[in-house]
Amino acid sequence: MMVAVTGATGHIGANLVRALINEGRSTRCLVHVNCQAVDGLDIERFQGDVRDLESLCRAFQGVDVVYHLAACISLSMADWPMLESINVTGTRNVVEACLRTGVRRLVHFSSIHALVQEPLAIPVDESRPLVESRHYPPYDRSKAAAEREVRRGMERGVNAVIIYPTAIIGPYDYQPSYFGEALLAMAQRRLPALVTGGFDWVDVRDVVAGAILAEEKASAGGSYLLSGHWVSMCDIAAMVKEITGVATSRMVCPLWLARIGAPFIKGISQLNGKRPLYTSVSLRALKSNRHISHERATCELGYEPRPFRETLVDTLRWFEESGQLTRPDKAKSGESL
């Protein structure tokens, strides 16, 4: 039976599509603009937009399972209209299209950011409420609102399962992602300073494996946190140095000071035509809950994240093989990771 993937050209989508193809499954990819991540793959491409309900209904005809990944990611406090349009209205359209076309199962990718993480001393699990207050960043609120659309769809008969990944890292990061940019900056001596704090990082391939297991095993309405390992930014930089031989920035800025400087960093980045990596939103995330439980996914699905260092090595190697990473001290020798 046919599987449809929205957001197929994003980081998770690029890995999911490859995993589905490896399983021998017929895969239809909803594509919008950039198709680089799926070029050359044995897939059916379908031009569409999650904001266009009719295009989704056409894309889902004859489809058994839909993986809904399409979303806009933002580290800004000022992007609500765009986030609402793509993440919330887009998800509402996906749910409606599933109902109209008789899709058997919807796998919806939410986010750890959709869940309230306080109190920080208690591990986050699937019982945490969805964020709602405007105190939270627009991206967080948009993912929570999108999940509410899915849950309303469940009340109307949609057979859905919800996935909450933590911070994604791994190969096939074509665009690249925000963290992919930070990782490249570390490995190329372009990151001016490190900040204290860290996050729970998970290998994109483990997220994909967990999502496929959820599609196959989960009961209707099931939800699963797919987390990995909490690692600080300073420890990541130290690992990057060990793996690549490239020394990263020695300057470490405390989060409170980085938050003060965030508006200036944003301004400089915009002048240089780049998106800022350190914003009030990203810095807030780096002091979030360190304890994210994947116990339910492990017990019910057999989910088990791989060691973080293995993920980091594979990610840096992929960046090098794809031509995005040229280490300053190895460029002439041709030495690879």
Question: How is this structure best summarized?
Answer:
The chain is α/β, with parallel strands linked by helices. It contains 11 helices and 12 strands.
Mind explaining what this structure looks like?
- The chain is α/β, with parallel strands linked by helices and 337 residues long.
- The chain has a domain at 2-173 and 201-229 and 291-301: Rossmann fold.
- Helix content is 41%, strand content 15%.
- It has eleven helices and twelve strands.
- The strands form three sheets. It has a seven-stranded parallel beta sheet, sandwiched between helices.
- Strand 5 (105-109), helix 4 (138-155) and strand 6 form a beta-alpha-beta unit.
- The N and C termini lie far apart (40 Å).
- The mean pLDDT is 91.
Instruction: Write the CATH fold name of the domain at 2-173 and 201-229 and 291-301.
Output: Rossmann fold
Detail the poorly predicted runs. none
Going by CATH, the homologous superfamily of the domain at 2-173 and 201-229 and 291-301 would be NAD(P)-binding Rossmann-like Domain
The CATH architecture designation of the domain at 2-173 and 201-229 and 291-301 is 3-Layer(aba) Sandwich
Rounded Rg? 20 Å
Q: List the total number of helices.
A: 11
Residue share in helix: 40-55%
Overall average residue pLDDT: 91
Quote the distance from N terminus to C terminus. 40 Å
Strand order of the largest sheet: 3-2-1-4-5-6-10
The secondary structure category is alpha/beta
Q: What percentage of the residues does DSSP assign to strands (E)?
A: 15-25%
CATH class value of the domain at 2-173 and 201-229 and 291-301: Alpha Beta
Largest sheet: 7 strands, parallel
Strand and helix order: EHEEHEHEHEEHEEHEEHEHHHH
Total number of strands: 12
Assign an overall shape: globular
